[in-house]
Write a structure and sequence with these properties.
4-stranded parallel beta sheet; alpha/beta; Rossmann fold; 103 residues; globular
């Protein structure tokens, strides 16, 4: 059985922006055929630590030169509501490059 995928979503405080984005991602997962994906909200100060145990980082805040231990995508589409389908397809391609999803 494949390992369950984990996405972390972070903004400055880990409250409003990241929670909104995480909820939108969770709502769109089934539309894109992604099952068994856990979406967690974290604050930006702990994002680097959480990234070590994640498959993808959705970043709401500018990250500067910080390097993370997992791929990263912009969370701005989930904040604005524009470009969410394209961002979800990018997430799917990163999490499931061979096209298989987990149950």
């Amino acid at each position: 059985m494949a390992k369950r995928k984990r996405i972390i979503v972070a903004c400055g405080s880990g409250v409003a922006s990241s929670q909104l984005s995480a909820n939108r991602i969770k709502d769109l997962l089934p539309k894109f055929g992604m099952r068994g994906v856990k979406v967690d909200v974290v604050d930006f100060k702990t994002a680097k630590l959480h990234a070590e145990h994640s498959d993808l980082f959705v970043n709401i805040s500018p990250h500067g030169d910080t390097k993370y231990d997992c791929p990263m995508v912009s969370g701005i589409p989930f904040m604005t509501g524009f470009g969410m389908d394209e961002a979800m397809q990018e997430i799917k391609d990163m999490l499931f490059p061979d096209g298989t999803e987990t149950e």
